[in-house]
Amino acid sequence: MQQVTIEDIRAAADRIRGSVLRTPLIPAGWGDPERPLWIKPESLQAVGAFKVRGAFNAIAALDDDTRARGVVAYSSGNHAQAVAYAASRWGIAAHIVMPEETPNVKVAATREWGATVVLCGAGERERVAARLVTETGGVLIPPFDHPDVIAGQGTIGLEIAEDLPDVETVLIPVSGGGLASGIGTALRALCPRARVIGVEPELAADTAEALRVGHRVDWPIQDRNRTIADGLRSQPSELTFDHLRRVLDDLITVSENDIRAASRELALRAHLVAEPSGAVALAAYRSTATPRGRTVIVLSGGNVEPALMAEILVG
Amino acid sequence: MQQVTIEDIRAAADRIRGSVLRTPLIPAGWGDPERPLWIKPESLQAVGAFKVRGAFNAIAALDDDTRARGVVAYSSGNHAQAVAYAASRWGIAAHIVMPEETPNVKVAATREWGATVVLCGAGERERVAARLVTETGGVLIPPFDHPDVIAGQGTIGLEIAEDLPDVETVLIPVSGGGLASGIGTALRALCPRARVIGVEPELAADTAEALRVGHRVDWPIQDRNRTIADGLRSQPSELTFDHLRRVLDDLITVSENDIRAASRELALRAHLVAEPSGAVALAAYRSTATPRGRTVIVLSGGNVEPALMAEILVG
């Protein structure tokens, strides 16, 4: 299977420059002295999540005629806003298929970037998206299962290597695996001595199991849906699992309580709003399983319902 | 009266480099299209507020023998942690006088940076600080009434000018006035066409009145204490008022409801935790009094009690 290379990631960095925020690496003086801590806050992206990197790169990599026909995506989460935002930067049409039960605030945010939102029934979204591709001639932008998306997310790894070349540990949330595949690929090339560690909720730890048994495993969606980390309920594709197997040194799982505590700690000590999925890397950092040394956590996103964030803050 | 110059601010930037975070200027795509918006998030500093710039510069500017005797400060707020942090970076002693009623979490945070906290009764803090200066030989670091503190805060203006040289409006919270004096001085020199606008809560609008009448006015502390923006209850000194009169184009006042709404908007759209005092510039941005054009808001700090932040989030 064709793997994404550091050259692909460098090309992605050239494409997204000026349109996607180059996030700072923020030193957190309140970390454990044995594990000096830096935060990579992808929550500061215009759409509140790293997804904009992959979406923008995938659209930028299209040839002009193809791109002009617009794009299609299905997502109830951060990928929806990311594709809508990237399409708006290119001035092209975006059709985003979202389940009818998607919270209004997410539908509104996607529409605010100029996208056409098409609501659909449960289990219908892939069929509806396929119809839109046929009708509009647009290109489907997948949330993780595409080399250009992986390469886009990998630009985070490029930036970590530039800002902290002697990093020793990088902790990355794992869901569909595009983020960890991209960052891991960049770090393997640029910081070969750094440990690249994935993080999953215990309640959606399919990749932890898959890495143990050496092949992908399927956890029922009703099981994965139990975690508060609603962005981490996907499973790797063949393409991303093939990357993860090669680039991850380890995968740490964290409890629901650890995730809530980490989100609270990020708000009160780093003054960054993290959605539960975005806080798992700090939860893993607080785990005794994490090695010593200079550590970067990837805060993948900050889109959280206000009532849930309020509940997390008061503990 | 001797005013701080752009050369003082450049010297401060050299002194604080590497010890104080050079914060990014974050484009906020969700701003008003007629007023493209950027956020300067000083909440990302290690102590959660801009105060570390002035404190660090004031300590760095001391001669080695004087600095070695340590520093003293009195504060119940962000200045306490800022001086404690800066002293810890220099490896010198810090004695911080705090009122007995200071929330435990702030006392603990100050101690975490290695400072000795001296609790005192109401109205006692200046006397206790003076005694500590005599006893320890340490230097008093004031929160705003000092040229080196103003020059340190001014480095924010230097960074804004570097990152967005064609900025048209900059909105800055005003309390004791050190922040706005410093930033305004930098912008007058580097971006002479930018409008520099102070922001105060309506309930602590002594500087708005002072600028109208042309001299400092004294609002009773019980009046100023009514605002939720607990970091904006101080009043300018002669030194800072003299700067403000020269560098501010205008001063906008905002209501308590506007401040809460702005803090909520920063959390949900920018994914940044702002204390109420840190949110007033966004409140002013949302006011019809604000001119059009490329606008920077200074988010001055993010240290907020979790229960209050939770209350703000659920509206």
TrEMBL record, chains A, B:
Its EC number is 4.3.1.19. One of its GO terms (biological process) is D-serine biosynthetic process. Residues 19-301 form the Tryptophan synthase beta chain-like PALP domain. The keyword Glycoprotein does not apply. It catalyses: L-threonine = 2-oxobutanoate + NH4(+). The keyword Disulfide bond does not apply. Its cofactor is pyridoxal 5'-phosphate. Catalyzes the anaerobic formation of alpha-ketobutyrate and ammonia from threonine in a two-step reaction. The first step involved a dehydration of threonine and a production of enamine intermediates (aminocrotonate), which tautomerizes to its imine form (iminobutyrate). Both intermediates are unstable and short-lived. The second step is the nonenzymatic hydrolysis of the enamine/imine intermediates to form 2-ketobutyrate and free ammonia. In the low water environment of the cell, the second step is accelerated by RidA. Belongs to the serine/threonine dehydratase family. This is threonine ammonia-lyase. It comes from Mycolicibacterium sediminis.
